[in-house]
Amino acid sequence: MRELLQAPYPSLVIPKPYDFAASICDHGWPMLAPFAWDAEHKTLQRVELLDTGRVVLLRLTAQEEGDNVQLQVAVKADQDLTVAEMQELEGKLRWMLKLNEDLSEFYAIAAQHNRLSHVAASGRGRLLRAPTLWEDVVKTICTTNVSWRNTVSMVQRLVARLGAPLVADPARRAFPTPQQVAAADPALFDKEIRLGYRNGYVIQLAREIVEGRRDLEALKQNALPGPELRQELRSIKGVGDYAANTLLVLLGHYHELPVDSAFRSHVKMRHFAHIPADAPPTDAEMAAVYDQWGAWKALGYWFEAGE
DNA sequence: TTCCAGGGGTAGA
DNA sequence: TCTACCCATGGA
Known about the structure:
Blueprint: E1 2-6, H1 20-25, E2 35-38, E3 43-49, E4 55-65, E5 68-77, H2 83-96, H3 104-110, H4 117-122, H5 133-141, H6 148-162, E6 165-166, E7 169-173, H7 178-183, H8 186-193, H9 198-210, H10 226-234, H11 241-250, H12 261-271, H13 283-288, H14 297-305
Antiparallel strand pairs: 1-5, 2-3, 3-4, 4-5, 6-7
Helix pairs in contact: 5-11, 10-11
The protein binds a DNA duplex through residues 27-28, 140-141, 143-151, 153-154, 194-199, 201, 237-243, 246, 258, 260-263.
């Protein structure tokens, strides 16, 4: 196993400003396998299966000099990567870190909010996502109606049982592909992976993809307007309003709010504390609080809640 | 034992 | 469109 320091990818343009560690940690995704966050060294690790079938370990850190940030990418692999593999990784890194998104409109609104102006100043808002929409859909389904700790456990078991292993450290595995999930014995889900009633949703989605009945990755091309994209996501069994809006955020559409128990709890406490408990605000009333954020409601809520 | 967690599907109105 | 009911899992 060789450690190949590719530092940095010269064509991987880092936006300014950009706070690598804060951006990675601004939601729970780095805690979900096969991601792992090393807080002490501010390093994001990920086991990744390449198109060639090779499994590599990525280690990402940022080197900062003033507002000039350079991404340091270390790749552990059994041999040198090919040019095509390097290009594949570069594309995946750009997607995962949302380096291509233009957040200037969001920053302009955030700068007008005293308590959120730091978000704009430090260049946050690029929430971590998986290289594939498939992985993000499965993980989002695993966040529904369970505690976060349970989500972490479910995803860990899914990766541990079905993901492709790293040669030098077989205990570390990549996220399972739709093919691997579709080919798995459903009994393995019932007995070991234990996603509860979500087992059927994940297996069904994998089969739809493998059989060519659904092309999730095509949705990343940003070819569909928001409402149609949302409708497409809602057509996935197990994806309801909350999950669809969460996935829209991951896809770079922030006009819909992922309304879950955490949203309701936060908004009630922050904006409706004077309302009697026996007459709670409706979801629509709570969502209206963020109308001022226009197309950036979800980020506005997210960073307000994260203060 | 019961409730709840970063809800969703279905049937019936 | 709205409501009631059911759904596996694991921790409190």
